[in-house]
Each structure stands twice: as C-alpha cells, then as structure tokens.
Amino acid sequence: MSFAENLARLQARIRDACLACGRPPESVRLLAVSKTMPVERLREAIAAGQHAFGENYVQEALEKIAALASEALEWHHIGLIQSNKTAEIAAHFDWAHGVDRLKIAQRLSDQRPAARPPLQVCVQVNISGEASKSGCAPQEALALCQAVAALPGLRLRGLMALPAPTTANANPHAPFRQLRQLFEQARTAGLALDTLSMGMSDDFEAAIAEGATLVRIGSALFGPRTGKPVPQA
Ligand SMILES: *Cc1c(COP(=O)(O)O)cnc(C)c1O
Predict the structure, then answer these.
(1) What predicted TM-score, i.e. pTM, was given to this entire model?
(2) 129 or 90: whose pLDDT is higher?
(3) Ligand 1 binding site (Cβ under 6 Å of any ligand atom)
(4) Are 24 and 210 in contact (CB under 8 A)?
(5) Using CA atoms in the order 123, 233, 165, 167, what is the torsion angle rounded to 10 degrees?
(6) Tens digit of pLDDT for each residue in 12-45?
(7) Domains, in order of start, for the chain
C-alpha cells in the first residue's frame, strides 16, 4: 500500500474515533513519527500532505531537517532529552515533547536562538509509573509546568505521556484519563495549555476518547520499523 493510502486510512480511523466520542475530527492533529525512516519516505509523506514529523534521535533528525530544508515542515522532538543534546534541539526543532526536568527546560530556553519563536514544549509525565526513567512524577507536573511557562525561550503547550503497553486485563484508557485530569488541573490553575500529546499506533483510539489533541503515530503510517536507530553520538 502506498503512503498516501496508509495516510488516508489512518485519517479515517482518527476521524471515526473522534466521531465516536462526539469530538470534531479537526480537534486531533496527526504527528507522523518518522524515526528510522529514510528521507525518501518522508518525501512521500510530504507529497501526500503530511508536514509535521516526530523524531527521537537528534543526529538522525538533523540530517533529515537539512535534507528537507526547502520544505515548510514542523519538526517535533519526541524522545528523552539528554542535556548534551539541548543546544541542537533548541536550534533545529519547533517542538519538544519530552521535557521532564527543570534543568532541561532551562537549557532549552537559554539555547533557543533569539531569531526563532519560542520552542513549543510539552511536559512529559510518567503516568503509568513504568520502569522507564523518563517523565516527571504526576504530583510534580503542575509545579514543573508553572516553572516552564515562565521561561522566555519556551512556550508551554501541554502535557505528553508514553504509557507502558497495557497488559491483557488492564484498562487502556486509564493512563490517558489520568493525563487528561492533570491537564485540566493545570488549566484550572491558570496555565494556557492546549495540547494533550498522547496515543500511538496501538492505542490512539483510546487516547482520542480521553481527549488527546495530538497523536504520535509511526508504524501504523510508515509500516514496521526495520532499520536500527542510528546510535546517539
Ligand atoms: C516511536 C514513538 C512513537 C510512535 O510509535 P508507534 O507505535 O510506531 O506509533 C510515539 N511516541 C514516541 C515518544 C515514540 O518514541
């Protein structure tokens, strides 16, 4: 199946998931997660009308950003942010979804080039308490959001989560609902958040039912990732 056909099928699933819970289809944005995919696959995606791409590995992303510099694209860094990568992320990306510590946020803000608009960020929350080291604890999320919102080089847009895959008898909606509750709390506290970055190929319908505004989808769009990720330099 061509990329354009895959994209159309996925957009139809997103639309159906929205309609099933009474949400307007345009309330959910699709971020195409292109990690490990070669530039030619991104060109197909661009030709099919996709302009927002998510990448985890900075070196790999920088090559694609350079190769596609003549296109008007939106680049989202979606992975763990190591402190030795913040300068490159601040210089080359439009969004960062993995902000989970104030130190990282401060570096991104300080290193954001003055000529660019503030870097748009989501605070990542470790909602399902999985072994993964990334994401702040849910009880720390509000304070971190308030601190991030005060940084001049950043524009806080929302919250992000990467829940552990649900086991057979667990409720796939539960972690998304918990992130949504934190999002509402932060808005009640006066933060102007508009983005709930949650849902991937295997669980985006549950995420949409719980209020996702941005779904990050790789394999359901590009097919399985066979290529090994480039090692972090
Ligand atoms: C790889 C990745 C995705 C996409 O995963 P798929 O299951 O291929 O849709 C989404 N978000 C993050 C943070 C990722 O690392």
Answers:
(1) 0.95
(2) 90
(3) 33, 35, 56, 78-79, 162, 200-202, 216-220
(4) no
(5) -130
(6) 999 999 999 999 999 999 999 999 999 999 999 9
(7) 3-222 (3.20.20.10)
